[in-house]
Amino acid sequence: MEIDVHVKRAILHILDTGAGIPVLSDTLLGLPIGIQEYLYKHLTRAMKDPDIKRTQFVDPPSRFCELVQQYKKDDESFTSVSQEIASLLFDFMVENVGVPSADLLVVDFIGDGEPYLGVLKLNYKHSYIHYVDHEDGRLNDILRQPCSLPTEGQRLDEFVIINLNTGQIFLKEKKFEIDDKKEYYLSNRLVLCEDVLSEKQTFDIVEKTVKKIIASEYNGDIEKLNTVKRVIADDYESDSVIDMDSIAQATFGDDFTVKERFREEAAKKGLTQRKVEVSDNIESKIFKKQKFVTDSGIELSIPTDYLMREDIVEFRNNPDGTISVEIKNIEGFVPK
Fold this sequence. Notes:
It comes from Eubacterium callanderi. This is Nucleoid-associated protein. This protein is α+β, with helices and mostly antiparallel strands. The protein has helices at 33-47, 63-73, 78-95, 185-190, 199-217, 222-239, 244-252, 256-268, 283-286; strands spanning 5-15, 53-55, 102-111, 114-123, 125-133, 139-148, 158-163, 169-172, 175-178, 181-184, 241-243, 275-277, 290-293, 299-302, 313-317, 323-327. The chain contains nine helices and 16 strands.
């Protein structure tokens, strides 16, 4: 589902630690059509990113949280608040050289009718441009640009977007070297928010855990793997959730020991909730095709919707331990 985004104002600050000081703008960013399009694409892509964590500020509040609250009370403070946020981030980056330099784009925007403050960290990318040197004749050369911003088609690595009505935070972050170990510095050091999993992390934990258990307890039973896919898809379509109890019951039935192992294995990886709300951000993962490769090298790719439909595809366990797959009601093949 496309998000309706309207940018009200934006400002850009340069946080290049190699320069020694931040270059803070005191003037709002101009918004010609090209820049509007750039902002729109990054904001809509960020809001739909499957790696976002939906979280809340914790108590006591961080300075970052206090600045957001200040802006909610006085929207004329946009420039000064953005400068303070940029300074907070820059000071942390100087002390922790593992955090990459970036430009910081702060945006006040409306998304589907809700007010948001977006803090987008545009980490520098390496790119190449042509260069024409006229000094000794004409030389066409290639120059490496070390401080290019992400293109409009690239996903951002880090951002914090706050719903100014509800206080909900949409956060995407990466681990960097902090005090000799890799950690999430945005959530743990600057923003200070509840530690939660992203929707993608939740889905991946469920998928990997259940595959591991089916492999060890049921010799990789294809029907059970298909059941997991179908249950996850059904729960998403009916209630927009990943339901751990539903998955465990449908897949492992009355085998209490295996069901408990499933929950314990998931909890070890950070997934302790029995039911997790998910959005259409991970719809493509839920409904992605299930791929199988036989021991003879034959590859099958089957849409999730068809896995439990025996009128289309049927998996049979043979007495000799082999598996037969029958694909039914085919009207034709399309080579790829």
